[in-house]
Design brief:
Blueprint: H1 9-18, H2 23-29, H3 34-41, H4 49-59, H5 91-113, H6 131-142, H7 154-164, E1 168-172, E2 174-176, E3 179-180, E4 188-191, E5 198-202, H8 207-222, E6 227-229, H9 244-257, H10 260-265, H11 274-284, H12 288-297, H13 303-333, H14 342-350, H15 352-363, H16 369-376, H17 383-390
Parallel strand pairs: 1-5
Antiparallel strand pairs: 2-3, 4-5, 4-6
Length: 392
């Protein structure tokens, strides 16, 4: 007879509920009925050790945690700056927030223990300051000039410059293949710590919107407002739905990515159609919609032209979604179609800066293999493959 696990029922229930997993879905993880899950959580019965381990894995909690006598202290939920009426965060969103909170907490403690200085730009400003001042300080601090990007990949340039200043960037859209992060729930979030600030970008979002999300979250760091965002890069009709912090950070991002001087330098024919707008906005790493909104707010186009461009941009976006859906179907149907390297995806999820620091600590003998493996979500015997991605 299989050995039973003497777990604490209320801790088991808390682990499931904090993962936003229903009794029915939890039951599927261990091939039992929902009634059986309920009986374990009420202390009427006990799971086997294997079943308890499987549940701990599904809930993304250490197996030993289920044996604690009481519910442990957990990371506090991030401030929710999402638009009014947003749906509750799902399991994938909860898991990515928790994972990055754990990494951020570890990194912050390491930097404090090493006697490193606090980053001066974290919390340098507040929502009471002018967005233009904050935007200019971000550009100056990161040494970025939207008028003349040094590469044809503005996103990579912004990430590299941000990480050079000690900001940890994570880009991913999945926990695993069957659990992805919905952009309608989270487009991005920021943890505004003065030693180890972290930014998350949902890579499942439209590529043209991801750079705006990054700079929006950097604005959160600059005003020390930790929180989650889900409606970034929106138009002038959003004021009633969004938190004042979100409106401010949107304004900072628009000003930083599309400075007024740059926008006014474009000829009028730049705004003639959405295709003309797209040609210029693509070089700036922003969407046609964001570009049109910025032009409208600077009085460079009329309300009628703005409405026309906004309508065309929406059609363009729907076309993109349809093509993305077709592309994904083609990938499923084509057995020979290869996707991105597993280790490249892990590198983007962990972030280059975080990966580099953990691997250096591991190679130097300052971090044990078990901890390094947990921090990087990679077996230690595969670190060489992960490290190789750093230099590609």
């Amino acid at each position: 007879m299989a050995e039973r696990a003497n777990i604490t029922p209320k801790v088991l229930k808390w682990a499931r509920e904090s993962a936003r997993i229903s009794e029915e879905d939890a039951a599927k993880k261990v091939s039992v009925s929902a009634e059986k899950i309920k009986s374990w959580e009420e202390g009427m019965a006990q799971p086997t050790i294997r079943q308890a381990k499987d549940l701990a894995r599904a809930y993304r909690r250490p197996f030993a945690l289920l044996f604690l006598p009481d519910i442990p202290d957990d990371f506090q939920p991030l401030q929710d700056y999402r638009s009014q009426g947003s749906k509750a965060l799902g399991t994938a969103s909860i898991f990515i927030i928790r994972e990055l909170q754990q990494k951020q907490s570890w990194m912050s403690e390491v930097k404090k223990e090493n006697g490193e200085y606090e980053l001066p730009f974290v919390g340098r400003y507040s929502i009471e300051d002018k967005p233009e001042i904050v935007a200019n300080d971000i550009l100056r601090t990161l040494d970025i000039y939207p008028t003349r990007y040094r590469t044809d990949n503005p996103m990579r340039e912004w990430i590299d410059k941000a990480e050079m200043k000690g900001i940890f960037i994570s880009r991913t859209s999945f926990i695993h293949s069957k659990l992805t992060i919905d952009p309608k729930e989270i487009q991005g979030f920021a943890i505004a710590d003065s030693y180890a600030p972290f930014v998350f970008i949902n890579s499942k979002d439209w590529p043209a919107a991801q750079l705006f999300t990054l700079v929006h979250e950097l604005a959160h760091i600059w005003i020390a407002e930790t929180g989650i965002s889900n409606e970034i890069e929106v138009g002038s009709d959003s004021r009633g739905r969004l938190h004042p912090v979100e409106l401010f950070c949107n304004e900072v991002a628009a000003t930083a990515l599309m400075p007024a001087k740059l926008m006014r330098s474009f000829e009028k024919r730049t705004f003639a159609s959405v295709n003309d707008v797209f040609a210029v906005s693509k070089k700036q790493g922003v969407s046609s919609f964001a570009f049109a909104v910025r032009a409208y707010k600077l009085n460079l186009i009329s309300p009628a032209l703005y409405t026309k461009l906004k309508h065309e941009a929406n059609i363009q976006f729907r076309t993109f979604l349809e093509k993305e859906q077709q592309r994904k179907l083609q990938q499923r149907n084509d057995a020979n179609q290869g996707g991105p390297s597993t280790y490249l995806l892990k590198l983007n999820k962990n972030g280059r800066l975080f990966t580099h620091i953990v691997l250096d600590a591991f190679n130097g003998g300052f971090v044990e293999p078990t901890l390094a493996s947990a921090l990087l979500s990679t077996p230690s015997n595969k670190f060489e493959k992960l490290e190789a991605q750093l230099y590609k």
